[in-house]
Amino acid sequence: MESKPTDDLRSLAASFPLLVYDHGEQPDNSQTVFSVADGSCRAYRVPELRNNYRCLETPRGLVLLADAASSQTSLWNPQTGEKIALPALEKALPEDCRCLLSDTTSSPDCLVLIYDLAQPDLLFCRVNGGSAWIAQSLDIGLYTLPDCHPDSHLPPTRNVISEMAAVQGRFYFMEDLDVAGVLSFAQDPEPHMELTSFGAPMPTFDSDAPRVVTLSYLLESSRELFLVCFFFLGCSFEPVEEVAAYRMDFSKQEWRRVIDIGDRAFLVGPDRFAASCSAVEHGLRRGCVYFAFDFFGDSTEFYVFDLLQGTRELIGPGQDVPLPTSPPFWMLPVLP
User: Would the pTM of this model clear 0.85, i.e. be above it?
Assistant: First the structure.
C-alpha cells in the first residue's frame, strides 16, 4: 500500500471495479481502495468521500453526492472527476437509503431515484432539466418480522422496499415473497409515479433444515432483470449454503434459474446493493458473484462464488488493511 495517500481516483480508472474501505476519522482521513481485477491495494484521500459529503453509489457507476452544508446534489464520475449538477435537497437524506438511475444520463428522460430502506418513501428527479426533488410515499402493505428475528413479537409494520433494480426505464422491487412491484414515471412535464405489480413467487431452497433464510438481491444486467439468492440454514447468516441466480421471464412472469450468465460478473454488497459488469472487459471472473458483505464486521475478506462450477473462494486485500468503520462499498466502472 502506498505510504502517502493521494486524492485523485482517476489514476485507477483502468482498475475499476474497486472495493472501498472507509476508516472514518483519522489523522489523514483516508480510505483504502482494493482493485478486484488486479489485486492492487492503495490508500486515497478522496475529497468526495469525506464527511462533508453523503455518497450513494449506483449500479451504473456514477455516485450521488449530497453536500451536507449546502444541500446541493450532483452525480459524480469517479473515473473522470466530472460532475452533473442536480437540484438541492429540502432536507437531509435518510440515514439508510439507496440510489438508482433509470437509464443512461444521455437520455433526456433519465431519472435519479432514492429509496429509503427504513420507510416506504422515495425521492426522485430528472437528470436533465429537473427543477426539484419530488417526495413520494408508497403503500405496499404490512410486514411481519420472521420468528427468528429478535423483535418478532412486535406488531406488523408498513412494508418497505429493501431491494430494487432499474431495467429499461422501470424500477422493480419485491412487494412480498410472491409479488413484484413496478414503478414507472411519466413526464408531464415533471415526472409522476405509477405503481403496478404482478405475481412472481420468490425462489426457494429445498432443505430438511427447520428454517432456511434467503438474502436476495435484484439487479439489471444487459437490460434484463436478475435475482441473486443466498440461502442460509437457520438464522445465523453463516455459512452460505447455496448461491443461485435467476432471470425474470416476463412472458411467464416467473424467475428462471440460470447457471451460466456468460461474460458477466455480479457484484453485491451491504444494503442490498447489486450491479453487473462485463467480466472480460474489467478483468473479473466470468459467471461469478462477488459477495462483499461481512455480517459481523470483523474481516476485509469477501467471497467469489462461481455459478457454473459451484465453487467459492475467499479473497481480500490482506491483513495489513485495518477494519473499516462502516461496511465496504463498491465503486464501479461507469456505464456509457
Answer: yes
Phi-psi region at 11: left, alpha or beta (left = phi > 0; alpha = psi -120 to 50): alpha
Asked if 97 and 114 touch (Cβ cutoff 8 Å), the reply is yes
Quickly count: other Cβ atoms within 10 Å of residue 110's Cβ. 19
User: Where does the pLDDT of residue 1 fall: very low under 50, low under 70, confident under 90, or very high at 90 and above?
Assistant: very low
Cα 62 off chain centre by? 12
Q: Is the pLDDT of residue 124 over 60?
A: yes
Supply 222's cell numbers. Answer: 444487459
User: Does 289 have pLDDT greater than 50?
Assistant: yes
Contact by Cβ (8 Å): 277, 102: no
Q: Which residues contact 211 (CB under 8 A, 6 or more apart)?
A: 148, 233, 234, 235
Q: Which of 39-48, 204-213, 248-257, 307-316 has the highest mean pLDDT?
A: 248-257
199 near 175, Cβ under 8 Å? no
3-state secondary structure (DSSP) of residue 271: helix
316 vs 236: CA distance, rounded Å: 22
Grid cell at residue 238: 453463516
Of 56-65, 107-116, 256-265, the one with minimum mean pLDDT is: 107-116
Q: 294, 20 in Cβ contact below 8 A? A: no
Place of cell 455480479: 266
